Structure formats: C-alpha cells, structure tokens
C-alpha cells in the first residue's frame, strides 16, 4: 500500500475525522458494537474529560488520496509517570480502515517521534487514555462483540505492531459467564457465604444510590488501595471520580454495586454495569433522531441481556484472609444474582490481568472461560 502520509489532526475538521474513523473502520463488522459518538467526542475534549488535566494528547491521521485511513494518539500521562516512575509514554486510539494496516507503521513512527522529543525512554499501549479506561489491543476473540468500555480491532494490528519492534508487556483477559435461566451459586462460594453469615463482624450491603457520589468515593478509596501494587496502576483523581459517578449513575441499580465490610470498615466491592453497547448496537453511535427512544425502551424493558464487571477490589490487608475472601465472594455472587434477576444471562468479567490469580480462581468457580485477550505492547525509544 503506497501513498500514505501522516499528519497531526489539527483543527476541528481534522478532529471530527479522527473521531469518526472507527465508525468507518468497523462498519459492517458484526462483532463491533459501536459506542456513542458523543461519548467518544467527550473523551477527547479537555473541557469535558478530567483525565486530560494531566494528559495533552497529540492526535495523528494517516491519509491516502485525500481520505483518512488510520489514526493514533501519543501522549505522556503525568499521573502514570508520577506513580510508576517508568519514563514511558503511551499511544492509543489506533485504528485503520480495512486493508489499510500498512498505515500502522508510519502512525507508530509519528507517535514514537512525538514521545522521543519529550525525552521519554519507552512507548507502551494502546491506552485510551490510561489503564482505568479502554486499553489493550485485541489479539484473540475477534468474532464476539465488544462490551461497554472495551475496544475492538482486527487481527492484522498485532502483526503490524510486532513488525515495528513492539513486544508484549502484559496480557489481559475477558471471561464470559453464561448463566442460563436458573441462577446457581458454586458450592465453594456458598460455603463462603455461610461463613460470612456466622460472623457478625462481616457484612455486605447494596449501594445507597441516594448518596451515590459518597458511595463512589468510598469504592474508589478501596480501589486505589486494592490496585496500588498492580501492574500499570494509575490512581483516579477526585475530578475523575466525580466524572465517573455522573456517567454511571443513570444506568445503575442498587444491586449493581455491593460493598463488603469488616466491623463497619469497607474492605471490598464488586461493580457490574449493563452492557450499553448492546442497547446502542444498531444506532451507528447516534442518539438522534430516534436512537434515544430505542435505548430507553431497551433499558426500561430489561431487554439488555449482557452486563460487564469493570471494577472490583479488596484491600491488600484482606486479600489473603478468610474474611476478605468471604466478603469478596459474597459481593461477587450478589452482583451476579442481581443481574440475573433483571434478565441478564451473560456477564463479562473484564479486563483481568493474566497475573491476577485470586480473581481468576474466583471466576473459575463459575466455569467462565476466557474468550478474549487484550495485549499491551511496549518498545524502547
């Protein structure tokens, strides 16, 4: 493929092309469930996305014959650099039109040059924009739809990255639990629940959605503690926390979020959310003129049959204790039962680090297989 040029996506017209490119890239792919265009535009807008307070992305488009055929963003995430101290910049938003995978090499070169000019020693990704958002390159599971806040892609991307000198840094898996018409708690989880019920110091409760931002602050305190030692972790800022609360509130029920406590002290949580990509799958990312009515009908009529577990965590002080395991297993099971009671028959647990043995062990109890793999790549500059 010849005649490809890469240029910064500068100006509103170029950024509109940048935002629209994935809708062109995957249109007609039955395994792509597009997000809402307004959500993607907001993610790239510093006025509306608080994560961009510590990120200044450089966006690039690949052009051929006057038409955009690929895109990428390169950036230094200052929150990541402060926490990880790894001198690594990131790339993300990597997509090309079908048959235009040759654009990946020059797009990566542009991203590398941008980060090298900032004095960074390595580049890693994809991150859109951090490990707390969409991240990872899909390398297995192309035939099944992407769930809410999970990326899609094509098989040729991985080979193009590896040809450009990138190597695997970490794999993350998505597991699928198909629950059927009858909800069943695994025997070992049932024993954990019984142990919890015999111990008055251990309690679990649903979220209080009337005081949702307080509940989210509590959960994020657990999350920042639980994940602080994990690979690639970036703490969430207060502004990001409030933004997340506003985004999630309209689609949550009390039973979507469970919190486990020991002697009244919150130590673990599990959050499951409806798979909004299923509700918007046929809207081409647009709510107007009548897309909003379809979404409301599907939400109110319990016509979304899939959900995703995007966040869960247990404080390090309780991760290996019997009390912590009983609380975590009970919250996990309660969330699944709530989803089942509301018509959900398949829940995706994602993403899960390949090194997270504790969570993988719990998932295995439900017989949920890994069905997608997402890879983070890295290259020295």
Topology:
Elements: E1 4-8, H1 12-25, H2 37-43, E2 58-64, E3 67-75, H3 78-84, E4 88-96, H4 104-117, E5 122-125, E6 127-128, E7 134-135, E8 137-140, H5 156-163, E9 167-178, H6 187-197, E10 202-206, H7 212-226, H8 238-248, E11 257-262, E12 265-274, H9 276-279, H10 291-300, E13 306-314, H11 322-341, E14 346-353, H12 357-365, E15 370-380
Parallel strand pairs: 4-5, 13-14
Antiparallel strand pairs: 1-2, 2-3, 3-4, 5-15, 6-7, 8-15, 9-14, 9-15, 10-11, 11-12, 12-13
Helix pairs in contact: 6-11, 7-8
Key terms for this structure?
alpha+beta, Aminopeptidase, 2 domains, 13-stranded mixed sheet, 12 helices, 27% strand
Q: Could you please describe the fold and organization of this structure?
A:
This protein is α+β, with helices and mostly antiparallel strands. The chain folds into two domains: about 5-175, Aminopeptidase; about 175-375, Gcn5-related N-acetyltransferase (GNAT) (Aminopeptidase, 3-Layer(aba) Sandwich), CATH 3.40.630. It contains twelve helices and 15 strands. It has helices at about 10-25, 35-45, 80-85, 105-115, 155-165, 185-195, 210-225, 240-250, 275-280, 290-300, 320-340, 355-365, and strands at about 5-10, 60-65, 65-75, 90-95, 120-125, 125-130, 135, 135-140, 165-180, 200-205, 255-260, 265-275, 305-315, 345-355, 370-380. A hairpin with a 2-residue loop joins strand 2 and strand 3 (about 65-75). The radius of gyration is 21 Å and the shape is globular.
